[in-house]
Amino acid sequence: MDAQVEKNNIKHVKKDRHLTPWLFVAPHLIIFAIFFLIPVIFGIYISFTNWDLMGSPKFIGLANYKELLFDNSSVFYEQLRTGLKNTFLFVVISVPFCIIVPLLMALALNVKPKLGKFFQALFYLPSLFAISAVVIIWNLMFNVAYGPINNIFHLKTVWTGTQPYAWIAIVVVTIWWTIGGNMIIYQAALNGISKDYYEAAEIDGATPTQQFFKITLPSIRSQILYTVVMTTIAQFNIYGQPLMLTNGGPDSSTSVLLMYIQQNAFGSGQSIAGIASAMAIILGICIMIVSAIQFVFLRDNSR
Amino acid sequence: MRKNKLGSRIIAFTFLLILAIIWVVPLIWGIVTSFKSEAEFSTIGFKFLPINWVLTNYTELLVNNASTPLFHWFANSMIISVSNTVLVLIVVSLSAFAYDRLQFKGKNALFYFLLATMMFPSVVNIIPLYKIIDLLGWVNTKWAMIVPGAAGVFNIFLVRQFMSNIPISFDEAARMDGASDFTIFRKIILPLTKPVLYVVALFTFTGSWNDFLWPSIVFNDIDKMPITPGLQLLQGMYQSQPTLLMAGAFIAIVPTFILYLFAQKYFLQSMSLSAGVKG
């Protein structure tokens, strides 16, 4: 009898111990399911519907994708082409700067110059600011009549209203705003390279350039891969800079895809959430393909 | 060789100094301009520093709170960011503990599934997420920004990685003494996980404070919105008053700036932490 009770107790305890782990993960899993998993599945589904955000979605098969990709009389076809072209253009121009500038900063900081800590803190600082505040400040920097840039260099450049200056302005703001994180990553990576390599290379008569390409770059390869992929993903999601700096102009030349997605789904007038979802999925697929390509080309094949 | 080193230090310093000017000028210019009067700014011509330092831009923002209630937005942002941070800390530390320390069926499969979802571009779920917020009646409420942010996976990964370095013998000793899973979590693991939790907290707070696209979708009620979409409204409303806009922008960056002053160490080490586990 006693043994039976004991056994039951153990069973009970054991059952409890099976349940507790789920209590620990449940809060996250519930939030994850409601606010990530269901929306993702639902988002894919509504891209195959003519949904207007309010009523019930009606399944229309591939019609949205057909219209976006092939119907050149459609305004959304134009939007996708313009938005995707501008988004890719921005990624192609900005990502190299967002890798090279912080890498140069990290290399310079790595020789331990005076005020190094101050420089590091300063370059990192803007990445903690909201994009709307950053753009308000830079809008005035680029102001034609009152801005310091035109006044100090005696220019009359209409920065945010003419090309290519509008893109230059957007890229400058992006670099200023975002490079801090990458710089810190490179600094940590450079710190981890053994000094012995460089000493040996110096004895062999390697020039600093040779040392950089033969020792430094290969040693921080995984951090470069990580930052290239993450920076590219971040820049594909560009939205705030063109919205508030150029408002997509001049002549839609800086209108990026996320602006069209936002307008179509949530802008004034009838919501066209179905088409907007299809646009979002096309953008998502582009991001995944580009990440995959970068990964294949940049990963360390020797390992 | 000594000379060589000195030379490279001078080159590095010069290079960094030039960049530092580019980085610091917009900040200083923005701040000092917020202390110029509108009349001085638009009539005197370009001067870097104000001739008369005035607070009118700030007082006008404070008084003019019907169409652009900046201080209201500030309070909203503060409540949202703090609540979101607290929720994330609770949810993340509980989950990370279970995935690292406890045994349950399908644990690894579930964890790898969560990690795999991180590859999924978040742009896809903005529109349907709005619908879910709408169904919950959360449009124009702070909940719309507090809760969805806790769905993320990366922080769990980060904290779990950190926990896995705490020796398992600590748990076993406590378990011998009859401690429950929750006691072990609360009394042993949580205190030892503090450094990484600071990092999670700082990044959650700044991420929440700076979020732009999502709040501009879920808020259209001017009184309810946080400060980042608020600034966009402010820019639209006061295009002709740049000095006032500078005051608004400056107010919006103060909290994260102060946080950075006090917790710079954690911000800087965290970046290498997150790259380290991924790289």
Automatic annotation (TrEMBL), chain A:
SUPFAM superfamilies: MalF N-terminal region-like, MetI-like. Keywords: Cell membrane, Membrane, Transmembrane, Transmembrane helix, Transport. CDD domains: TM_PBP2. The chain crosses the membrane at residues 21-48, 88-109, 121-145, 165-185, 224-240, 272-298. It holds the Pfam family BPD_transp_1. It is found in: Cell membrane. It is a multi-pass membrane protein. This is Carbohydrate ABC transporter permease. It comes from Lapidilactobacillus gannanensis.
Automatic annotation (TrEMBL), chain B:
Pfam families: BPD_transp_1. It is a multi-pass membrane protein. This is Carbohydrate ABC transporter permease. The chain crosses the membrane at residues 12-32, 70-97, 109-130, 142-163, 244-263. It comes from the Bacteria. Its main location: membrane. The lineage of its organism: Bacteria, Bacillati, Bacillota, Bacilli, Lactobacillales. Gene3D superfamilies: MetI-like. Residues 74-263 form the ABC transmembrane type-1 domain. Keywords: Cell membrane, Membrane, Transmembrane, Transmembrane helix, Transport. Belongs to the binding-protein-dependent transport system permease family. SUPFAM superfamilies: MetI-like. It is found in: Cell membrane.
